[in-house]
Design goal:
Two copies of one chain form a homodimer. By secondary structure, the first copy, chain A, is mainly alpha-helical. Chain A has a two-stranded antiparallel ribbon. The structure holds FE2/S2 (inorganic) cluster (2 copies). The structure holds a DNA duplex (30 and 30 nucleotides).
Chain lengths: 144, 144
Amino acid sequence: MFSKACEYGIKAIIYIATQSLSGTRVKIGDVANNSGSPEAFTAKILGTLTKHNIVNSHTGPYGGFEISSKQMKQVKMRDIVEAIDGDTIFNGCGLGLNECNHEQPCPMHHKFVKVREEIKTMLTTTTIYDLATEYKSGKTVLMR
Amino acid sequence: MFSKACEYGIKAIIYIATQSLSGTRVKIGDVANNSGSPEAFTAKILGTLTKHNIVNSHTGPYGGFEISSKQMKQVKMRDIVEAIDGDTIFNGCGLGLNECNHEQPCPMHHKFVKVREEIKTMLTTTTIYDLATEYKSGKTVLMR
DNA sequence: TATATTTAAGATATTTTTGTCCAAAATAAA
DNA sequence: TTTATTTTGGACAAAAATATCTTAAATATA
Ligand code: FES
Ligand code: FES
């Protein structure tokens, strides 16, 4: 469904957000350790998300990553996925035709579009804040 | 959603099935030309599907690929996807945790499971025959 | 049996994704 | 200003996915 990069990105953001809720900035090493993702690769992905203004970074001592309350509540999962994986999952043809086209549908089109819309809805109606608060309360885990 | 191999496999099977409905066997070259997929790669994938008894192959002159009416009506899209991409799409965790676990859910679990079930339903309720007849009637296309 | 045709199988090549490493830039504090 | 800390960016490496090529095996027909 999502690329590894995207999975790592989502988990990193959720961890950073929960820490931000407590007012603490986190270093990339902490993120990797607490989300079960490779450190250097996760750093790359956070670089992308920083450019998209989904997370804020600060260099130097006492630096690290942080997400504001405003960001948490405004940014949807969809924004993260789109920033990393692009919009193929939201608009692309299920059978890989150059584009999804209602006029000349591929054999899977009708049924596929429904699922694709469900995915879009799921990711558009879920904010970072939603998942971060749930994770902070201990109801969910980022690694096992 | 699906790998390229899986996309090619599905398109190949639909084309072979429509030809089988007319009683004609098709050669790998025809399949590639009519489904817009790379020939040698598609041959590999059809080898896999042949082993899974989803399609039948015949070597030699007048040989080629063919699917029986019985197979067409019994084999679900799910079988094709599972044969090529495995069962990760049906059972795997959306955030890449080693397995999906209801007891220790990842942050996306609840919403993700619903979508995953929709995908499973879509692929389990669609047979090769369904898509082949629709394609044969000209309502859908395999390439553009 | 000899020949032509077609899939099967294995080796190889290319591209993309995933992942690591290291030096540079930014910055806070002593 | 110097030092230590942290992200940033670029080069590099490894693994997986995608794709091609070549030869072998099977088989129908003459
Ligand atoms: S044309 Fe393939 S999903 Fe719309
Ligand atoms: S645990 Fe992640 S989807 Fe179920």
